[in-house]
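Researcher: Go.
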Amino acid sequence: MNEQEVYYTIALTRMTGFNFQTALQLYRELGGGLAVYEHRNDIKDVIPDCSTRLAESLKDWEMPLIRAAQEMEFITKHGIRPLLMGSEAYPQRLAECPDAPILLYYMGNADLNRRRVINIIGTRHSTAYGQDLIRHFVADMKQQCPEVLIVSGLAYGIDICAHRQALANSLDTVGVLAHGLDEIYPSSHRDTAMQMLKQGGLLTEYMSETKADRLNFVKRNRIVAGIADATILVESAAKGGGLITTRIAMDYNRSVFAFPGAVGAPYSEGCNNLIRDNGAALLTCANDFINAMGWQTDAQLQQAQAQGIERNLFPNLTPEEQTIAHILDEMGDFSLNQLSVKANIPIGQLTAVLFQMEMKGVVRALAGGTYHLLK
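Model: Structure:
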């Protein structure tokens, strides 16, 4: 951990408040929180389109640095990992989003860049119907995609049911919080949260002493949406937080699915409307989801491994194709730009290589300019 960079980045988040785009622009254009601090008196020279008001506000770092020092002491004492934008441990799917946090706080042992990541969300007023859907869906995912990471928001209803079913099926699960890691909200979910630290984790963009305000829950939904390959809505009223997350996921070019419910059922109305309006693909079981995502081969690989069969994943590939295949295998779906950086191949050349790999049936281009490994 680069403690100095973390220190100045924490301070930067205090100075920009929750103007995510501003913080991200400063962080990316100058190369980090420390660089912003070093240019605090000449921001407009290095970023000419920076507003005068912002430039002036970035000159006084005294109080933000005091608060950052306090937070550094807190995260060190409690074993919290700060994840800086651009670091290897930072969730790469989220990094592609235009309003991604420049810093996350994480406790847990799950890899946030797991090859398969989904979120399961819905109403806080879940019914027996919704709980049964989650129970069967997660159990089937365990059998067919045993390495999947399940993300949700640790809230009442669908969220906590998804976390608990993941734990029951020995799947890692991560809760994205709308407050600091110095508390658990709701407190009744503390025992589950403690289990998740050993089989998943807890993630937030908020510093300690940040309370679970209503607006924070809306803001954290973008992390839930952006960190995953797909969003799965289980139950929702005609209006609700789950629908906000699905809209964000669509904006991020993520796949969105919803379970239908009975006509007139109050907590299926949101799902039914979303499916009707083509905002989500209809889901009835894990097989529907796996087929739609092209993840069928996970079950085949699991069966082959159980039988002790060695498998050559990438036959008849050139060295460059092998490199790309291994990156996608280890890191999950990547954009063209990410692949270019990771593989150290110019984009013009990379485009031709990916075309050949598509012809060989090794990769598939997805919406949003990302590439998916077919195995």
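Model: DSSP finds 18 helices and twelve strands in the chain.
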